[in-house]
Amino acid sequence: MNNSGVTVGLDIGTTSIKVVIAQTIGNQFNVIGAGNAPSRGLHKGVIVDIDATANAIREAINQAQEKANIQINEVVAGIPANQIDIIHVDGLVSIANQNKRITYNDVQNVTRQAISSNVPADRDVIELIAEEFSVDGFDGIKDPHEMIGVRLEMHGTAYLGPSKILDNTRMAIQKAGLKLREFVLSPLAVGTSILNDGEQDFGTVIIDLGGGQTTTFIMHDRKLKFHTIDIEGGDNVTKDISTVLSTSYNNAEKLKRNYGYADPSQANVRNEFTVEVVGDSVPQTSNEHYLAEIIAARLEQILGRAFEPLSAVNGLDMPGGFVLTGGNAALPRIVDFSKTILGDNVRLFVPDQIGLRHPSYTRAMSYAMFASRKNMTQQVIKNVIMSKYDIDKFPADEQSQNMMPAYQETTDSTNQIFDEYQYSNETNQNSFFAKWMQKAKNLFRED
């Protein structure tokens, strides 16, 4: 298959690696392959074993290559919002061209100037969003290329991350035999990819219910305005089931996937199933309603902790409401249960492209989409950011006719079975919840 216009999104999650291969043809964005593999070498969203992570990336890449019948050489990698700083940056340069025509070299120079004096030594820029350019004092310019002037200014927002996290991610990608095309900031990519213009303008809260952690963030005025991280996710739900029902982690994951409901009021107490209890040769019997109560107890904690910081920044009444996504959002009746905590304006986002109809693919899809939608000026800025990683420089001005086309998403109505998702072994319980767990466990044993 022709690699022209191909973008590969790589989501290195705590519990799973997701890969999405997309191809931009004309003004259409088409997914042509996907892969996933259990994560290894990560803890709380951060790489702690580069070799193990590289092997997991390679496994997911191989799966995606086989489905798409295409060789993958470079990827767009997402960076989670852990320890992210948001700062305002300004740059100012004189136009070097004798005819005073602004070129992409001038955009590169003003970008370097903007970030050179504003970034701490232990931080690197992940994204720089140019909110506006000014030419000789005339502001509100979105793209200064080919304009005439003697002075170019940039005013923008930079998103910074810990250098070690970025370096370790890059190293894992390289050890997997791949080239890093660029980093993207996960909440920014997701927010701009899955929300429509009105939702981005007027404000929307996205809750990304991942396997290893939950990320809550606000998109407003087309910017990432607020984010918070909770180190609990779907993995904690699975461990709760394992603890209360005295079954193995793998069995608990199967029970959650096959019988789990987020909302106990929607589960049927008459629908029973057997549970393989550790240390007991005779399986025990439980039911959907009891399982849903275990699940709901943890979800209430997760959503409750998202509620509090949102309330502090007046984020509970955004016109766009709440959008749920991520692997843990695949639990049946998750929207109904979330409404009891967050209010009625809650919806679920699931990618509708063929092969991706599961919310766990939202991030990887968004990374590919976000990177493929950049215009020439945005790509110039990105290449300046990525130049420290020896990424190829942007083509010269005379090649600007190869500018990325405008983006238009296409959908496919073909049904696709959801991929199974897995979680790792991480938990974080407070004393109250631990007591509830022990009580529930004792009740189950008394049955």
Describe the structure.
The protein is α+β, with helices and mostly antiparallel strands. 34% of the residues lie in helices and 27% in strands. It contains twelve helices and 18 strands. The termini are far apart. 45% of the residues are buried.
Topology of this structure?
Blueprint: E1 6-12, E2 16-25, E3 28-38, E4 42-43, E5 46-47, H1 50-68, E6 74-79, E7 85-94, H2 104-116, E8 123-135, E9 138-141, E10 151-162, H3 163-175, E11 179-185, H4 186-194, H5 197-202, E12 204-209, E13 214-220, E14 223-230, H6 234-244, H7 249-259, E15 272-275, E16 284-287, H8 288-312, E17 322-325, H9 334-342, E18 346-348, H10 362-372, H11 376-386, H12 431-446
Parallel strand pairs: 1-6, 6-11, 12-17, 17-18
Antiparallel strand pairs: 1-2, 2-3, 4-5, 7-10, 8-9, 8-10, 12-13, 13-14, 15-16
Helix pairs in contact: 1-3, 2-11, 4-10, 6-7, 6-8, 8-9
Compact summary:
The chain has 447 residues and is an alpha+beta fold. It has helices at residues 50-68, 104-116, 163-175, 186-194, 197-202, 234-244, 249-259, 288-312, 334-342, 362-372, 376-386, 431-446; strands spanning 6-12, 16-25, 28-38, 42-43, 46-47, 74-79, 85-94, 123-135, 138-141, 151-162, 179-185, 204-209, 214-220, 223-230, 272-275, 284-287, 322-325, 346-348.
What descriptors fit this protein?
447 residues; alpha+beta; Nucleotidyltransferase, domain 5; Dna Ligase, domain 1; five-stranded mixed β-sheet; globular
